[in-house]
Design brief:
The complex is a heterotrimer of chains A (about 600), B (about 160) and C (about 625).
Chain A lengths: L1 E5 L2 E5 L5 H7 L23 E6 L2 E6 L10 E3 L3 H17 L4 H9 L20 H10 L5 E3 L6 E3 L14 H5 L34 E2 L11 E2 L5 H5 L4 H5 L21 E3 L3 E3 L16 E3 H7 L20 E8 L14 H15 L4 E6 L9 H10 L3 E4 L2 E5 L11 E7 L4 E7 L1 E6 L1 E3 L3 H8 L26 E3 L9 H21 L9 E3 L9 H5 L5 E4 L4 E4 L9 H5 L5 E3 L4 H12 L2
Parallel strand pairs in A: 1-5, 10-21, 12-19, 13-14, 13-19, 14-15
Antiparallel strand pairs in A: 1-2, 3-4, 3-5, 6-7, 8-9, 11-20, 16-17, 17-18, 22-25, 23-24
Chain B lengths: L17 E6 L3 H10 L8 E6 L7 H9 L4 E6 L10 H18 L7 E5 L5 H18 L19
Parallel strand pairs in B: 1-2, 1-3, 3-4
Helix pairs in contact in B: 1-4
Chain C lengths: L5 H15 L5 E5 L2 H6 L1 H14 L5 E5 L11 E4 L5 E4 L4 H13 L7 E5 L1 E3 L5 E4 L15 H4 L17 H6 L4 H7 L3 H11 L11 H10 L6 E6 L8 H8 L1 H15 L3 E7 L3 H16 L4 E4 L4 E10 L8 H9 L22 E5 H13 L1 H5 L9 E8 L5 E6 L4 H8 L9 E6 L5 E4 L9 H6 L8 E6 L4 H15 L5 H18 L6 H16 L3 H5 L2 H9 L1 H10 L11 E5 L9 H5 L5 E2 L7 E2 L9 H5 L5 E5 L3
Parallel strand pairs in C: 1-2, 8-9, 8-12, 9-11, 13-17
Antiparallel strand pairs in C: 1-3, 3-4, 4-5, 6-7, 10-11, 13-14, 15-16, 15-17, 18-21, 19-20
Helix pairs in contact in C: 3-4, 7-11, 7-14, 8-9, 8-11, 10-11, 10-12, 11-14, 18-19, 19-20, 20-22
The chains are: A alpha/beta (about 600), B alpha/beta (about 160), C alpha/beta (about 625).
């Protein structure tokens, strides 16, 4: 521990720390542009320079690099330091007049303008963060400073594209000029592949360490191993350095947790319909044809556009079309109704009108299904607004305009079945209300759990009225859209119902099984062991002492396979005895 | 002596009697659905519910023929869908052997069929029953050489 | 590696003495870079040709520079038993005649510059004493104005010996100091240097003994010592002269340092712009190895040491210790923060001691003649002598080695012989581009580390540029800022962009586009660059601006307010005019004007079209009638 004084306040600081680290740990702010906790300090921006008095000598040193020494008297904002900082900010501003970080500092230190504005376009302030992250952390050494003095710049090996660059993008992430100085397209001939945010429907990018979505449970960031540089090369590890509670663990593996449970509630949800299957709507072809889920993210205040309805290449949204029943109620895709799209579509129309009051919104529907509490009233309200609700299925979306002034817009071709007229509506935004489909792997899970499914792949409940959350498999329940499309209120209701059903069974403390089980008549068993290999539940064992087979009635599920195969007829099946079935046969065939 | 099952239609009022062994989880539920769905299908078939097609003892089939059934079918879950994991596979193997045995007894192979119908396949059940009934109608009433009643002794006391 | 015995050294020494003072007449031509630039190559050819012509069996040898560069090309003639006579400012014709005249003993005395009557080595062995003299009335070396106040320690052999001959170096007392050091304990050697008061001659003035001690105390099995021969100051060439004139003195100095510190490997980092120095160093290192002064188990002492040469590509900043280390390691040249100091973690992260050429060259005489002798020279805090490269508007340019504490006046007027054409002394710029400009009021300032620093300048590596009234002080500051701006490594914003900004402001001033408040800003900016830069380059680069602002603010103000450049240098502030009374209409200027800006009929007064004039000054230089007037402001 060394005792130092910062701004007339005494502190005990661990030896080996830099002045900047010490000051930051004490909550004191020292401006810097080229320092990053995870990188070796470089001292290029000089903004962190402080006044140090030691052994009667006054010196000015960059606090990011200078280590604390016993008896130092440090002034972080002395007049000379502030004067110097103002000059440095002015000089930095000359290079990057629009960089936000520098403008913030300029504002803070009262620097209004720079008198040395550079004539070149390069806004690089030569802080070296990009180079250090590439060298120190990524281990690539794809960029380096070249030339000296005023000619200095960041460049590539031999000033040419080189395979050394892995196009990881760390350099531009660290650029204090907002990545304006280090642009990947100037560094590599590879096309950068941004990591798209799954939650934002690929409309925004995300880092390789991320929280899957804001409501994630547990709300803990995860590392995307496929994109994490550390898992590709063993380098980086920046997150480990930055994480103060030391919570990053690269050794953690995916693990299969085995739990013995008394009941399972299957709530695997749904997949949205993929509108690529309906090419006539131009999804994926026109950037402004989007799905209802994408619109949800765009219109969200916490979404990629912060709630602004904007698209690349679309200057103004004058009108929008909302298409119902995409992948629902359609002979070619899914015949069933996805139930929630109608209300979602009406809500989308309302949102667009709210955010863009001058726009026109068209809804193309087959039937409006507004069955639900307050739903019909909402529909009626929308009917009274100036949203145009048109009954008719859209035939196609095309970018060939009817009028020259609509060049660049989309045209919705549909029949208004109430008017019996063909409509061609120019729009700037098309929202496809995609339907709900079973999860792609729903049948795989069904096989594992032995759950019967509908033709489409939704899990079947035991009985629609009497046992709406139970399945034919004792102890397995279903809830939510994996059973059939339902909206949030219905899903919640079914989920709670399933939970209650499970709890009521558990609370009972004992389990009542079906009585239809196989049983061995000991005297008749010859000990041939035929049955043992046949039982899928391993319920039959051989009693070595008595030399006969025994059935564990708790394990036996009562399929009767063993009964039918016993050469001695030594197994009886309660509820389905041979005698009972014979009688049944006789009964049905009685003339 | 091999007795052939010849087509002799004496009475046009004759209707075949078909016994179906349906598993409780899939096919029987499918039949239920057909009922709920009010599907039309020939009334010639009478269903006997078994927990699983694996429970169908060959003697059940023989008993049915012996008691005068013109045809017998077994219907279970689709392969891989068995509620009891693999009962229908066992049925499938037993069926092939039993069919050969019945053929030697002079029973036409169309009179003994196996099918897979899931709980949701009411339509498939309807189509199966329709085609089987008409096919048996073509074959005519069963004529077995020995009509001595087959009585299986029940070992069960109760 | 041969184990050389003291007896063998005696043989070498005898050979060296023979070669230095043979039994035949000998001509030594100064063939360092300065001599070669003045045409020494042709002189050598001429002399060798003439000797052949006259069938004279004289010895011709190449030496380094004796320091008086003004007199180059320069040679000496020495006949056995007689004095050594120097002849300067030779031409090919003069050289040809000289050989003839010497052989016939009919030399014109005005032709000779100075003579040397005896040669005593640093270990007090007399090599020759001349009883008789060939030519009377030539000033003695010791009494010659240029050398009178000099005291040559670092430059002791420059110009006297053949740099390619280890024997001649040994004959002059070379490697005796190293042998003496080997008999001492390493820490005694360090103590010896500490007591001498020797301070780093590269610019910083850090006590050399203390530096060695810090490095020697580091716990490491590998330690390096480096000779910094990356001399880059404009107009300064002290180190080059030693490298080219006496390379073994550096090797010997490094050997002593390595022994004291406990290092077994050394580097000489020399800039590639010194090809001759590199060539001669290479030969010297080779010779030292062949004769057992470098390698394993030197002189059977158990001490091993070898030297590698590393070449710099000409970046000024490589003179900074940490940047130099980066350069040797092959990394981009950027100084790094200290601590850790190189003595803790230097080359390849091992303890490293770096001294500059002149420092190393000072070491052997100290060991040999004692620290008391050395510390008796100089001032209280600055001991010994310092080599200065005296250039600019001065009569005697060259390398001068003077005791510390000598005044600037003595250097300029006694050694330097005053200002050319008796013009008015204006300022002296010391310490190279990192130094400052001192005005006439400081001319009696004693030259030592502290006094110079107090006056706002630095000792630096020893550049001294004398400036007269014809030099614009703003332009001078701009020149130095331009130099450091180009040579900044570019790491620190303050140095890289700050110097560029200084340059921009100075440019505005010289163009008359500035306002008075710019001066305050310039001063603040300069101070901030000093405060906020990391290495020696940035923290001293604004010195020329800051000192000129301090001592010559009037001249800055004149540029701004009156648009007047009193030295008539700043083109934007001057106009060329024709004095009607003097112009005879010879048309000489009109013919040469590159822009055809001068019009006038023959025998009529000419006129300069100011819109076309680019102020090249050709007319002024051409006019033989003093008819061209340069006007600036009111003058």
């Amino acid at each position: 521990m060394v005792n130092i004084t910062i701004n007339d306040q005494e502190y005990d600081i661990e030896e080996g720390k830099t002045i900047l680290e010490a000051a930051q740990a004490m909550g004191l702010e020292i401006p810097t542009l080229c320092y990053h906790k995870a990188l070796s300090p470089y001292g290029a921006c000089r903004l962190c320079t402080v006044e140090i008095e030691l052994n009667g000598r006054t010196m000015y040193q960059a606090s990011c690099q200078y280590l604390v020494e016993e008896g130092m008297n440090i002034q972080t904002e002395s007049e000379r330091v502030v004067n110097g900082r103002k000059k440095m900010i002015e000089l930095l501003l000359a290079r990057a007049p629009e960089a936000e970080d520098i403008l913030d500092l300029a504002y803070k230190y009262g620097v209004k303008d720079t008198r040395f504005l550079k004539e070149f376009d390069d806004v690089c302030i030569l802080c070296g963060l990009c180079i250090r992250v590439c060298h120190d952390r990524m281990g690539f050494k794809a960029i380096e400073f070249i030339n000296r003095g005023i000619e200095r710049k960041v460049s590539l090996p031999f000033e040419d594209f080189h395979e050394v660059c892995r196009t990881c993008g760390s350099c531009s992430t660290y650029c204090p000029t907002g990545a304006k100085a280090v642009q990947l397209e100037n560094l590599t001939h590879h096309t950068p592949r941004p990591i798209l945010s799954e939650f934002d429907q690929g409309l925004a990018t995300r880092p390789a360490v991320y929280t899957p979505f804001p409501q994630a449970v547990p709300k803990i960031p995860v590392i995307d191993r496929n994109n994490c540089i550390h898992f590709q090369t063993g380098e980086c590890k920046i997150c480990q350095d930055v994480c103060e509670p030391d919570a990053i663990n690269y050794e953690q593996e995916d693990e299969i947790v085995e739990r013995e449970v008394g009941a399972i509630v299957v709530t695997t949800g749904f997949d949205p319909f993929d509108p690529n299957r309906l090419p006539q709507y131009g999804y994926g072809k026109y950037p402004n044809v989007i799905t209802s889920l994408e619109f949800e993210r765009i219109s969200s205040a916490s979404g990629p556009t912060e709630g602004e309805i904007i698209f690349p290449g679309v200057t103004e949204i004058k009108s929008a079309a909302i298409l119902h029943c995409i992948g629902s109620r359609d002979e070619n895709t899914n015949r069933y109704c996805s139930r929630l799209c109608c209300m979602n579509a009406l809500k989308a129309a309302n949102l667009i009108r709210d955010k863009l009051p001058d726009s026109h919104v068209y809804e193309f529907y087959i039937d409006i299904r507004a069955a639900g509490k307050g739903y019909e009233e909402y529909y009626q309200k929308m009917l009274r607004s100036d949203i145009r609700i048109i009954r008719g299925k859209v035939a196609e979306i095309t970018n060939i305009p009817d009028l020259p002034e609509d060049e660049g817009r989309l045209t919705v071709v549909a029949e208004d079945t109430l008017l019996g007229a063909i409509l061609r509506v120019p729009v700037d935004l098309v929202i496809l209300m995609v339907g709900i489909e079973p999860k792609k792997d729903a049948r795989d899970l069904a096989h594992i759990l032995h759950l019967p499914c509908t033709e489409e792949g939704f899990y079947n409940e035991k009985h629609p009225k009497l046992a709406p959350t139970e399945t034919v498999i004792e102890g397995i329940h279903v809830a939510g859209a994996c059973q059939f499309p339902k909206d949030v209120p219905d899903s919640v209701a079914q989920g709670e119902s399933a939970a209650a059903a499970v709890l009521s069974k558990i609370a009972r403390g004992e389990y009542i099984t079906e009585p239809t089980k196989a049983e061995i008549v000991d005297d008749h068993c010859s000990g041939c062991r035929n049955c043992i290999g046949l039982c899928p539940y391993l319920a039959i064992s051989f009693d070595e002492e008595e030399e006969i087979a025994k059935i564990d009635s708790a394990l036996c599920q009562g399929c009767g396979v063993c009964v039918a195969s016993c050469p001695s007829g030594a197994i009886i099946h309660r509820g389905y005895t041979d005698k009972q079935i014979f009688a049944e046969i006789e009964g049905v065939l009685e003339r | 002596m091999v007795v052939t099952d010849e087509k002799t239609i004496e009475n046009t009022d004759w209707e075949p009697r078909i016994v179906g062994f349906l598993c409780r989880w899939c096919s029987y539920a499918g039949a239920d659905l057909a009922g709920i769905s009010r599907l039309d299908y020939p009334p010639n078939s009478i269903f006997i519910k078994v927990p699983c097609t694996g429970r169908v003892d060959p003697t059940f089939v023989l008993k049915a023929f012996a008691d005068g059934a013109d045809a017998v079918f077994i219907s279970g879950c689709h392969l891989g869908d068995c509620h009891y994991i693999e009962g229908n596979y066992k049925t499938m193997r037993r069926f092939e052997i039993l069919k050969e045995t019945l053929k030697q007894l002079g029973i036409h192979e169309r009179r003994f069929q196996l099918t897979w119908i899931s709980a949701s396949e009411a339509q498939k059940l309807k189509e199966f029953l329709t085609s089987m009934t008409s096919s048996i109608k073509e074959l005519g009433p069963i004529q077995l050489p020995i009509l001595a009643p087959l009585q299986k002794e029940d070992k069960q006391d109760d | 590696m041969s184990d050389i015995k003291p007896a063998d050294i005696n043989i070498l020494r005898a050979k060296g003495e023979e070669s230095l003072y043979p039994d035949r007449p000998k001509i030594g031509i100064s063939m360092a870079s300065c001599g070669l630039a003045a045409g020494a190559g042709k002189i050598l050819e001429t002399i060798e040709g003439e000797l052949k012509n006259l069938d004279l069996d004289w010895i011709v040898t190449k030496t380094g520079c004796p320091g008086f560069c003004q007199k180059e090309p320069l040679l000496y003639y020495h006949a056995p038993g007689k004095e050594k006579i120097y002849f300067g400012e030779l031409t090919e014709k003069k050289a040809k005649d000289l050989v003839k005249e010497l052989s016939e003993n009919t030399v014109d005395r005005d032709f000779a510059t100075w003579k040397i009557m005896s040669d005593v080595t640093i270990d007090d062995k007399t090599l020759f004493i001349s009883e008789e003299t060939e030519i009377e009335d030539i000033p003695l070396y010791q009494e010659y104005d240029f050398f009178k106040k000099q005291h040559k320690i670092a430059l002791r052999n420059c110009g006297f010996i053949d740099p390619q001959s280890i024997e001649e170096y040994i004959a002059k007392g070379g490697y005796a100091a190293f042998q003496k050091a080997l008999k001492m304990k390493p820490d005694e050697v360090i103590d010896f240097i500490k007591k001498s008061g020797l301070r780093g001659r590269g610019g910083g003035g850090f006590p050399t003994g203390l530096k060695w001690e810090l490095c020697s105390k580091e716990d490491s099995d590998i330690k390096y010592i480096i000779c910094n021969a990356d001399e880059g100051d404009p107009g300064a060439y002290m180190d080059r002269s030693i490298l080219e004139g006496d390379p073994h003195s550096i090797i010997e100095g490094m050997l002593i340092g390595a022994y004291g510190i406990g290092s077994n490997e050394g580097y000489i980092y020399v800039r590639a712009e010194y090809p001759l120095a590199i060539e001669l160093l290479d030969i010297a290192v080779q010779q030292a190895r062949e004769n057992g002064f470098l390698g394993a188990n030197i002189l059977n002492s158990g001490f091993s040491f070898d030297i590698n040469l590393a070449y710099g590509a000409g970046a000024f900043v490589c003179g900074e210790e940490t940047a130099l280390i980066a350069s040797i390691e092959g990394r981009p040249v950027e100084p790094r923060i200290r601590p850790p100091f190189p003595s803790q973690s230097g080359l390849w992260e091992k303890p490293t001691n770096i001294n500059n050429v002149e420092t190393w060259a000072n070491v052997p005489p100290i060991i040999l003649k004692g620290h008391d002798w050395y510390s008796s020279l100089g001032t209280e805090t600055s001991k010994g002598t310092k080599v200065f490269s005296l250039v600019g508007k001065i009569n005697n340019t060259g390398l001068v080695e003077v005791p510390m504490g000598i005044t600037l006046r003595e250097i300029i007027y006694d050694v330097g012989g005053g200002i050319i054409d008796n013009k008015k002394f204006k300022a002296i710029q010391t310490g190279g581009p990192s130094g400052g400009c001192l005005p006439e009021s400081h001319i009696d300032l004693p030259v030592d580390y502290e006094s110079l620093k107090e006056a706002g300048s630095i000792m630096g590596s020893g550049g001294m540029i004398v400036v007269d009234e014809d030099t614009c002080i703003v332009d001078l500051a701009k020149f130095f800022i331009d130099f450091t701006r180009d040579e900044s490594c570019g790491k620190c914003v303050s140095c890289r962009d700050g110097l560029d900004a200084c340059h921009e402001i100075l440019n505005k001033i010289t163009e008359g586009k500035s306002a008075l408040e710019d001066l305050d800003y310039l001063e603040e900016l300069g101070q901030s660059i000093v405060d906020f830069s990391m290495c020696g380059l940035g923290t001293t680069a604004p010195n020329p601006v800051l000192t000129t602002l301090r001592y010559f603010k009037d001249e800055y103000i004149a540029h701004i307010e009156k648009k007047e450049c009193s030295a008539k240098v700043c083109k934007a502030l001057i106009t060329y005019e024709i004095i009607k009374d003097n112009c005879v209409g010879c048309q000489a200027c009109a013919r040469l004007c590159p822009e055809n800006a001068i019009k006038g009929q023959k025998d009529k007064v000419h006129k300069i079209n100011q819109e076309l004039c680019i102020k090249c000054g050709v007319c002024f230089d051409t006019c033989r009638y003093d008819a061209i007037l340069i006007r600036s402001g009111d003058k």
